[in-house]
Amino acid sequence: MDALMVALVAALLVQASDRTLLTSAMLGTRFAQKAHCVAGMVLALAIGNGVGAFGGSLLAPYLSPPASDLLVALTLLSAGISGLWPVTGRTSPARLGAFPATFVTIGLLAIGDRTQFITAALAARSATPVLPAVGAILGAVAINLPAVVLGERWLRRLPLRPVQIVAALLLTLVGTVQALAAIGLI
Predict the structure, then answer these.
(1) Residue pLDDT, tens place only, 123-145
(2) Largest distance between two CA atoms of the chain
């Protein structure tokens, strides 16, 4: 259960400072079929994090407990540091319907996503690798669902840059503490 909660919180922080949030809002604004967008987003995030958990479970037998702790620390540090860069750019899906456009666009963003790497690292450390995947999916959906439903206009009203900076700093801080603990300095 510990891995589920860590993945959920990490996904919330990562997704708050990610392009997926902006893309979800853009797709929600573009398409009137919000349910189709939500379904495409959930499926894409589930597949991405499921692949991450599967990869982590394949890696688990090769890692000692301190090594898996260090892997988690490095993924959190990497996610935090990369989250400090401003989120720019827009992704414009091809002329597809709401479900396929959302599934493809969010799916492409999820390949090699920071959340996917954190899911993989947590799955490598967990006795039940499905729990980090479930936590990451729940956290990512919790952040992206309102963006799809409410759209870009709503998202522009939020102080996104300060939220992104705070999320990135929290990930960096937790990653640093985890790294120091993994190498036995604290």
Answers:
(1) 999 999 999 999 999 999 999 99
(2) 54
For the question of whether the overall pTM of this predicted structure is more than 0.85, the answer is yes
Q: Indicate the residue type of 130.
A: V
Q: Do residues 156 and 147 lie in contact, with contact meaning Cβ atoms separated by under 8 Å?
A: no
Q: Which two tokens stand for residue 101?
A: 């456009």
DSSP H helices in the chain: 2-16, 19-30, 34-59, 65-83, 98-110, 114-125, 130-156, 160-182
- Alpha-helical runs (H) found in 84-159: 98-110, 114-125, 130-156
pLDDT tens-digit map of 21-74: 889 999 999 998 999 999 999 999 999 999 999 999 999 999 999 999 999 999
Nearest to 55 by CA among 132, 107, 109: 132
Quick one: tokens of 68? 């898996």
- The pLDDT, as a whole number, for residue 53 is 96
Taking only the tens place, the pLDDT of each residue in 114-124 is: 999 999 999 99
Q: What's CA 161's distance to the chain center, in Å?
A: 17
Contact between residue 100 and residue 25 where contact means Cβ atoms under 8 Å apart: no
Amino acid at position 131, single letter: L
User: CB neighbours (10 Å) of residue 117?
Assistant: 20
Q: What is the CA radius of gyration of the chain?
A: 16
